[in-house]
Amino acid sequence: MLKSISERGEYAMLELYRKAAARLADRRGVSELVAAIGLVAITAAVVIMASPQAKKMVGDLLTKASSSISGLF
Predict the structure, then answer these.
(1) What sign does the dihedral 62-67-72-73 (CA atoms) show?
(2) From CA 55, how far away is CA 49, in angstroms rounded?
């Protein structure tokens, strides 16, 4: 029996990995994962567009990322 929170977390991560690996083994599983990722991306975009504070935060994050990347070259 699982006793600690860390053991439960490790078990949950291993179970999630096992399920993802099983889904990647067939084409239907891959398309389901792509659909789920798309749904999460659309939901995040709607939340960002609806909230001015989130929009500013994402804009600042992208500005910092682009300046950091341009500094590398």
Answers:
(1) positive
(2) 6
Q: How would you label 38-49 residue by residue, b for 16+ Cβ within 10 Å and e otherwise?
A: eeeeeeeeeebe
**DSSP label of 4:** S
Q: Quick: pLDDT tens for 3-56.
A: 555 566 677 778 878 887 777 776 776 777 788 889 989 988 888 888 888 888
From the centroid of its chain, how far is CA 39?
Answer: 11
CA separation (Å) from 29 to 17, 34, 38? 13, 9, 14
Residue extents of the structural domains in the chain: 5-72
Query: Would you say how long the chain is, in residues?
Result: 73
